[in-house]
Design a protein that fits this description.
alpha/beta; Rossmann fold; binds nicotinamide-adenine-dinucleotide; six-stranded parallel sheet; 17 helices; binds uridine-5'-diphosphate-glucuronic acid
Length: 429
């Protein structure tokens, strides 16, 4: 089949490339020409393990094309995926749908023949209905919802082996077409569910809000563990062994971040508020996650004192999770400027390089080697659980023998750290 992905970001690029890899012909469109030029020169515009190779392979096989000409891409394709961003509106909980509606207007303007329009972007209940209204010649279009569940850093695997494929449509005929698009994955065991369009839109928000709730729950239990001398890892294991609870997403850590949980929990509240439904649980999840950010800053003060002027604080990893370069809503975005303002000298290392978010901070320096970043540390904050941070010999790489390690991802064992005489703090232990 011939597909057009409007928006070549984390979702459009990964799913477009993976669709090409299972045999479809894919035209990825982005209004950002820099992104398209980079991709056409054979380089991925984002950091996602395995993606570069897959792009090169499918680009070479002429199954994957990149363009900023939306009219060209649309008219080469039968199925159009909308994969543009749906951020929160500034100072509001509600979802900014301007990119989605702009894409719909462009489809309406340029598409010459009948097309199936599939919304992959995460959109509030009823957005499909609004898109339909924008598309003037309604007979020419079928609007479907097919939410995306991939995780950054594991996106290719998530595309190839999804837990489920959800398709929401108000037209029975279209199910067959979309199902056949995904057939290579369904044949390998992926579950396929169909529902109406609004149902699919809500499944996506409900899933993200539930996962955010699970993380927030374990983070609060971790707070209790710290006060009572209990190890949170035992609790996660003990609870997670109950199949009704499940072991995944029970890792305590800093506040959850990323481009989706924060905005989608807020988005769900605003959707429900419009319907006068009080999602009090989701509201308290957001509140608890916000509180957690402050709680961790306070903890740092408890560890190294109130006055942190001229203290050398090192961050290992600054992205919200490993195997991605995405900084959106990363906990480090709150922590680093706070410590910097308090007069600390910040150094950081991240496998995906220096971040423009910190360039304006005078005493915040990026090093491209762990050793160099850690050399003069008073405090090391292990912020992101990249594999390369999992077996470091801190005593060897830090000059100051009195340095403190604050492990926000529980990568190290307290017993082992004690044996090595490292002043060690972690989460919920
Ligand atoms: P992104 O910001 O990485 O990419 C969006 C891209 O769309 C940008 O490159 C932008 O230039 C482009 N764009 C915007 N309007 C356009 C237009 N009219 N024509 C052409 N290009 C246009 O966003 P993302 O992280 O890929 O997320 C996209 C959607 O998917 C969001 O709704 C998000 O919630 C959802 N989602 C994201 C993830 C994820 O892991 N990032 C996972 C599942 C779902
Ligand atoms: C999340 C969902 O997992 C995807 O299914 C969804 O498609 C995506 O959002 C989206 O809608 O964009 P992602 O944000 O890439 O994916 O990453 P996650 O692995 O879910 O992590 C999100 C945040 O939760 C990170 O800050 C991570 O550190 C934190 N987390 C995750 C924990 O603190 N503990 C856990 O056990 C799991």
């Amino acid at each position: 089949m011939r597909l057009c992905m409007i928006g070549t970001g984390y979702v459009g690029l990964v799913s477009g490339t993976c669709f090409a890899d299972i045999g479809h012909t894919v035209y990825c469109v982005d209004k950002n020409e820099e992104v398209i030029n980079k991709l056409n020169s054979g380089k991925s515009s984002i950091y996602e393990p395995g993606l570069n190779e897959l792009i090169k392979k499918n680009h070479r096989s002429k199954r994957l094309f990149f363009t900023s000409n939306i009219s060209y891409a649309l008219n080469k394709s039968d199925i159009i995926f909308i994969c543009v961003g749906t951020p929160s509106k500034k100072n509001s909980l509600s979802v900014d749908l301007s990119y989605v509606f702009k894409a719909a207007k462009e489809i309406s303007k340029f598409a010459k023949k009948k097309k199936i329009i599939v919304t992959k972007s995460t959109v509030p209940i009823g957005t499909g209905d609004q898109i339909e209204k924008i598309l003037k010649n309604k007979k020419k279009f079928i609007v479907i919802s097919n939410p995306e569940f991939l995780r950054e850093g594991e996106a290719i695997r998530d595309f190839r082996y999804p837990d489920r494929i959800i398709v929401g449509s108000n037209e029975n005929k279209s199910f067959k077409t979309i199902k056949s698009l995904y057939l290579p994955l369904i044949n390998k065991g992926a579950k396929y569910f169909s529902t109406n369009r609004r149902g699919a839109e809500l499944i996506k928000y409900a899933s993200n809000a539930f996962l955010a709730t699970k993380i927030t729950f374990i983070n609060e239990i971790a707070n209790l563990c710290e006060k009572t001398g209990i190890n949170i890892e035992d609790i996660s294991l003990g609870m997670g062994s109950d199949v009704r609870i499940g072991s995944r997403f029970l890792r305590a850590g800093p506040a959850y971040g990323g481009s989706c949980f924060p905005k989608d929990t807020k988005g769900l509240i605003s959707i429900a508020d419009k319907e006068k439904v009080d999602l009090s649980l989701v509201k308290s999840v957001i509140k608890s996650n916000e509180k957690r950010k402050k709680l961790l800053l306070d903890k740092v003060h408890t560890i190294i004192g109130k006055n942190i002027k001229n203290k050398n604080i090192v961050f290992l990893g600054v992205t919200f999770k490993p195997n991605t370069d995405d900084m959106r809503d990363s906990p480090s975005l709150g922590m680093i400027p706070y410590f910097h303002k308090k007069g600390a000298n910040i150094t950081y290392y991240d496998p995906t390089g220096a971040k423009y978010e910190f360039v304006k901070l005078k005493n915040c320096k990026f090093y491209n080697q762990i050793n160099l970043a850690c050399k003069n540390a008073d405090l090391i904050i292990l912020h992101t659980e990249w594999d390369e941070f999992k077996s470091l010999d801190f005593n060897k790489i830090v000059k100051n023998k009195k340095f403190i390690l604050y492990d926000l991802r529980n990568l190290y064992l307290p017993k082992e750290m004690k044996r090595k005489k490292i002043n060690y703090f972690s989460i919920g232990r």
